[in-house]
Amino acid sequence: AVVSTQSTGKNMYLKKLEETPVEEITALGSKRGRPKVLPDEIDKQLTNWILSLRRAGGTVDRHIIYSVLQGLISGKPQHAHLLLFKPSNGWCSYLYQKLNLKRRRATTSRPPISRAAYDEHQLRYLGKITTAVVEYDIPNELIITIDQTPSRYMVVNKTTMAEKNSKRVAVSNAEDKRAITITLYVTLSGEMLPFHMIYQGKTERSLPDRTLLPSSFVLSQNPKHWSNTEVTLKLLNEVVSPFLEDTKRKLGLPENQKSLIIWDDFRAHSTDDVLARASELNCEIAEVPKNHTHLLAPLDLTVNKSLETFEARKFSEYYSKSIANRKMPK
Fold it and tell me: What is the pTM assigned to this prediction?
């Protein structure tokens, strides 16, 4: 009975199907694949902007794309909901693939470091720090790590997007070295000292208006905006010395209590005048091994990244406003 019922149902279905005309499908509608997140207008403008930026030698990364997108959307109420959209790595990968672009990284002059060399330098470096701290009973509040990092006028990323299999990846302004050198000071207890900022110029006329910066900041200038003996003595006298004096008083420690400075190993930090002044301040010195700052310098691994992120965010805001106020490429 069950077989008979199934056969009857099948026959009825086939008969009905033969009586029903089948309409020819002439279009499939929208294209297959990942659905578009952006409206066609914005998607086209974003694509044109990225391609024109690469043709001009500019860098293209997720931050730049976000800035361009914000600039395109700004002032268009019908697309206001897209202001909350933040390109993910996956979405950017899809966009790069669509534009036939691939992530490329600039070459670096930093020499490779073998594992054996790293282990040897790390052992000596950490051993010197440990010996000084134990021998002189140096508290965390008097262990200061000092590092200098450039704040570039022209923000140029080390990576960009370029056409697949391209032999040369040109980046406009990649060699632009104009910058402000910012000296950061942080103690092991987590206290940050006032910034020391080095501007490019021969006289104090090259310095910014002091009212634009915190009063505690120390400003210097020289023709190359680099640290030298004069600048290093200034940071010891105007930043480190007052801090050590105040901290020792708060901790109830004697004036001759030893402290520890951790900084990079380069010429301005090892001149006779600098070492003599550090000795007068009862400071022991531990130098980060050459070519190992990206591996062993405390601030390179922590605070510097936060500063770079802050600068990138502010640059994105500026870039978005600039794009919103200029004509989009066709």
Answer: 0.63
